[in-house]
Recover the amino acids of this structure.
């Protein structure tokens, strides 16, 4: 590790760019099979949480759960979104 670091506030701007994008246009590279697919093409399964699975290999890509008045999200893989001009 380097002595040059920031806390999470240092990347808040970049993350907020990702979080305002229409999720259906996010491109995800699977951590398991390496395939890239639009998030909209992932299969969704409903249970205790909504679970999105890779259309290529079926591995879990995203888990989203409503817990009271909050959303809990677990992301797996690499997500890419277009940056605003």
């Amino acid at each position: 590790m380097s002595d040059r670091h920031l806390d999470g506030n240092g990347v808040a701007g970049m993350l907020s760019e990702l979080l305002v994008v229409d999720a259906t246009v996010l491109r995800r590279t699977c951590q398991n099979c390496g395939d890239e697919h639009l998030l909209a093409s992932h299969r969704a399964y409903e249970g205790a949480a909504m679970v999105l699975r890779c259309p290529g290999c079926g591995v879990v890509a995203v888990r989203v759960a409503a817990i009271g008045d909050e959303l809990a999200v677990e992301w797996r893989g690499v997500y890419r979104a277009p940056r605003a001009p």
